[in-house]
Amino acid sequence: MSAQVLREDKDGLAILTLNRPEALNALSPSLFVELRQHIDSIAEQTEEIGCVILCGKGRSFSAGNDLKAIQAGEVAPSRHFQAETLDAIESLPQPVIAAVQGHCYTGSLELALACDLMVTAESAKLADTHGKWGMSPTWGMSQRLPRRVGLLAAKEMMFSGRVVSGAEAAAMGLANRCVPDDELMRSAIAMGQGFLQNSWFTLRADKMLVNQGLNYTLADGLAFERNNSPGRGPDLEDRLKEFGS
Q1: pLDDT at 239 over 90
Q2: Measured between alpha carbons, how far is residue 174 from residues 82, 101, 164, 191 in Å?
Q3: Which pLDDT tens digit goes with each residue over 187-216?
Q4: Could you state, in order of their start, the residue ranges of all structural domains in the chain?
Q5: Residue 10 pairs with which residues in a beta bridge?
Q6: First-last CA distance in the chain
Q7: What are the two backbone dihedrals, phi and then psi, of residue 23, each rounded to the nearest 5 degrees?
Q8: Which of 47, 76, 99, 131 keeps 20 to 30 A from 187, CA to CA?
């Protein structure tokens, strides 16, 4: 059986590709096991990997939770394994970019929301269809979507189940930008490579301070930043020398 999640590393950038194109990259429990292994490995490779891209092979990022796997009785290693895997993506030290084309429904939208940033293709179709199936969120939709797009837009998406295009996703702040399909990976890679030109130390510090700071009020968040900022990075002196040369 071929790998359900592929990994390619190049010059500090790790690209994780959901590799079930024949099933529109539906999120089976076994796929999540492979994805978690990669995430846990990348979390320990802060000196080798500075940024991550998560994408899907074929015409869709992912059609969402694998209903056929559910019907067949396939189960994850633990009750909240999928949700905890999304937490692990969000907690990665490195920035994570979701590159989304085609379907991105429900569980796969929750997966994309666990990433720091998102680039959509013009073909992208994003939706929360929990209501269509009589299900309720457990992978983070009710928390991450409002924080991404605001309360009103999130509730409207969740209550209606309507499909949001790639262009609308960018316009409403769900994605950073929308590009033609044939430019999707090139755009996501260029974004990641741009980040990698800056200090990886600062990338990790920025992500940690922003993500954890969201748990506080403004006053407490400011105090958290002052008390927890890691300060100067080990590459500061070298970067100053380059600037002066």
Answers
A1: no
A2: 22, 14, 10, 17
A3: 999 999 999 999 999 999 999 999 999 999
A4: 5-196, 200-244
A5: 13
A6: 53
A7: -115, 20
A8: 47
- CA pair distance 30, 28, nearest whole angstrom: 5
Q: Under CATH, what is the fold of the domain 5-196?
A: 2-enoyl-CoA Hydratase; Chain A, domain 1 (3.90.226)
109 neighbors 135 (Cβ within 8 angstroms):
no
Whole-number pLDDT of residue 244? 67
pLDDT band at 58 (very low <50, low <70, confident <90, very high): very high
Please tell me the distance from the alpha carbon of residue 75 to that of residue 199, in angstroms, as a whole number.
Answer: 41
Mean pLDDT of the chain: 96
DSSP letter for each residue of 121-149: ETT-EEE--HHHHT----SSHHHHHHHHH
Considering only CA atoms, give the Rg of the chain.
18
Q: Which region, left, alpha or beta, applies to residue 219 given φ > 0 means left and ψ of -120 to 50 means alpha?
A: alpha
Q: Do the beta carbons of residue 62 and residue 25 sit within 8 Å?
A: yes
Indicate if the pLDDT at residue 123 is higher than 80: yes
| SS3 category, 242 | helix
Q: Which two tokens stand for residue 91?
A: 């907690």
Measured between alpha carbons, how far is 193 from 58 in angstroms, rounded to an integer?
A: 23
Question: Token match 């080990």: residue?
Answer: 234
Place of tokens 């720091």: 116
Distance CA 103, CA 189 (A): 21
